[in-house]
C-alpha cells in the first residue's frame, strides 16, 4: 500500500516510527510546515485562508487581493485607484515616463514597439525597419511601403513612426444630398 503524500512537497506524510504533524485542507493532506500562503510563503497563524482553486493553493486574504490586483507595466507592483493607461497597458503615474529620457508623459506620448516615448524622442527615429521587412515604392510619391515579415501588414515609416495602411481612416463618400428625379 502506498504511503500518503503531502500535497505541497510530494513527499510521504508518515515516515516509519516518526510522528509528524499533518494538516488537512480542501480534501488534501499536508505536512504542517508545507501548508503556507502561495504568495508570501508564510503560515496561517490565525487558521484563516482563502483557497485559489485555479492555482490549487491557499492564500492570506490580503495576499490574495494583492496577487490578483492589476500590476504596473513598468514596476510590476499593484496599481492604486489612479493610473495611466496606454496601448492597453497600465502604469502608475510616476512610472508613466519616456523610455528614452524618463520625462513625464502627462502632456502626450507615442507608443512604439510597446514602449511609451515623449514627442521629442518619438521623432528621433527610434523605430526602425524590422529585419526581414521588404518594401515597394509608391508609384505616385516614390515613398517606401514596407511589409512586415511576421504579420504581413503594410506600413510607411515617417519621422521614426510606423503608419500602418490598415489603420488609415476610410475615405468618406456622399453627403447630406438626396437624389431627385426630374418631374
Give a verbal description of the structure.
- By secondary structure, this protein is mainly beta.
- Among the domains are: 36-68, no CATH class; 84-122, Cysteine Rich Protein (Ribbon), CATH 2.10.110.10; 134-167, no CATH class.
- It has two helices and twelve strands.
- It has helices spanning 61-68, 119-122, and strands at 22-25, 28-31, 50-52, 57-59, 84-86, 89-91, 110-112, 115-117, 134-137, 144-147, 154-158, 161-164.
- The strands form five sheets. A four-stranded antiparallel β-sheet has the order 9-10-11-12, with no helix packed on it. Strands 1-2 form a two-stranded antiparallel ribbon.
- It starts with 21 loop residues before the first strand and ends in a 19-residue tail after the last strand.
- The relative contact order is 0.07.
Search tags:
2 helices; 7% helix; Cysteine Rich Protein; mainly beta
Amino acid at each position: 500500500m502506498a504511503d500518503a503524500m503531502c500535497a505541497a512537497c510530494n513527499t510521504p506524510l508518515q515516515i516509519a516510527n516518526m510522528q509528524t504533524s499533518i494538516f488537512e485542507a480542501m480534501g488534501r493532506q499536508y505536512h504542517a510546515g508545507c501548508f503556507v500562503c502561495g504568495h508570501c510563503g508564510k503560515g496561517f497563524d490565525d487558521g484563516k485562508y482563502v483557497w485559489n482553486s485555479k492555482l490549487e493553493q491557499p492564500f492570506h486574504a490580503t495576499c490574495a487581493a494583492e496577487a490578483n490586483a492589476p500590476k504596473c507595466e513598468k514596476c510590476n507592483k499593484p496599481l492604486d485607484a489612479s493610473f495611466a493607461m496606454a496601448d492597453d497597458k497600465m502604469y502608475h503615474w510616476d512610472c508613466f515616463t519616456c523610455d528614452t529620457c524618463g520625462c513625464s508623459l502627462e502632456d502626450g506620448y507615442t507608443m512604439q514597439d510597446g514602449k511609451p516615448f515623449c514627442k521629442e524622442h518619438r521623432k528621433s527615429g527610434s523605430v526602425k525597419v524590422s529585419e526581414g521587412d521588404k518594401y515597394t515604392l509608391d508609384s505616385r510619391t516614390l515613398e517606401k511601403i514596407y511589409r512586415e515579415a511576421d504579420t504581413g501588414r503594410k506600413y510607411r515609416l515617417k519621422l521614426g513612426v510606423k503608419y500602418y495602411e490598415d489603420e488609415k481612416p476610410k475615405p468618406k463618400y456622399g453627403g447630406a444630398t438626396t437624389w431627385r428625379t426630374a418631374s
